[in-house]
Amino acid sequence: MTKLADLQKRLQLAVLGNAPADDLVAAPPVGSRDSRLGVYRSAYTLRLTEFLEHDYEKLRTYLGGVRFAEMAQHYIKEHPSDQPNARWFSRFLPEFLEASHHYRRNPEIAELARLERALNDAFDGPDEPVCTMADLGAVAPEDFGSVSFVIASTVHRFAVTTNVSSLWSSLKCDEVPPRPEDISAPLQIMVWRQGSGARFRILGDEEAMAIDTARQGVTFGVICEMVAAFDDPDSAALRAAGYLRGWLEAEIVSSIRLDGGIEK
Fold first, then answer.
1. What angle do CA 132, 134, 139 make, to 5 degrees?
2. Which of 92, 137, 167, 198 has its CA 20 to 30 A from that of 103?
């Protein structure tokens, strides 16, 4: 006698389109056994498409229902669900869109998906402590150059080559998005969670370098030196201090380290 687990496995493979299972299905009065299985195949695809629509609402609006559904079918075929938690089903979509010949000629599509994924990941990220200007003020002035910062894990940083930020903002406001455009130089985007909401903003190249350096655990003194090498050295310390203040106000610094310890 065939075990239940084996029957379930065969039926699952059939629903995924990877194996025949006509012998498991009673013949219907009208149609075929395969058409009965097709009902489950369609339901599987529709449910996974709903997960994609939930995680990529702006992309769905941008592409429109028909084109999004076509894209979802391509993605489902390439990346069938492999996790019990449906939250992670859509995690490969930006890379899929970048590589797919159907979509890579429209790079704003993959970048819109990348931005939405980063916002979702920031929102779902772990709760962490938040340092304030008062915490920074507790550091003695003579020690300031040797402090380093733990940047929250909800912070994501990447470059874009299209006007995707304008596209996303228009879609969020239910406005007609502008025409997609390639930009002359990549823009640096930071996504993070502040309070109970996920946010993003465009960074200048210098601040992007500074925050990437801070995430490596480099001290503030070294960050100032790198900022000085990037642009006007006379105002480097002031610029670096301005970036740090902005990070604290944005709640992306989880802790301040001094001589191996942590200042809360």
1. 105
2. 198
- 33 Cβ contact list (under 8 Å, min separation 6): 22, 25, 26, 27
Dist. CA 35–CA 195, nearest whole Å: 50
Average pLDDT of the chain, as a whole number: 88
Q: What is the pLDDT of residues 155-203, one digit of tens each?
A: 999 999 999 999 999 999 999 999 999 999 999 999 999 999 999 999 9
Of 94, 264, 74, give the one whose Cα is nearest residue 164. Answer: 94
The per-residue pLDDT for range 1-21, each reduced to its tens digit, is 467 666 566 556 555 555 565
**Is the per-residue pLDDT at 136 higher than 60?**
yes
Identify the CA nearest to 45 among candidates 71, 67, 64, 24. 71
Question: In this structure, is the dihedral angle defined by the CA atoms of residues 79, 84, 89 and 91, taken in order, positive or negative?
Answer: negative
Q: How many residues does the chain have?
A: 264
Does 263 have pLDDT greater than 80? no
In angstroms, rounded to a whole number, what is the distance separating the alpha carbons of residues 240 and 148? Answer: 13
Q: What angle do CA 42, 44, 49 make, to 5 degrees?
A: 95
Instruction: Provide the pairing of β-strand 197-203 with 182-194.
Output: antiparallel
- 3-class SS at 200? strand
3-state helix, strand, coil in the chain (%, to 5): 55, 15, 30
Q: Which tokens sit at 135?
A: 């915490």
Q: Domain ranges in the chain?
A: 1-95
Check: CB of residue 161 under 8 Å from CB of residue 183. Answer: yes
- Joined tokens for residue 236: 């480097």
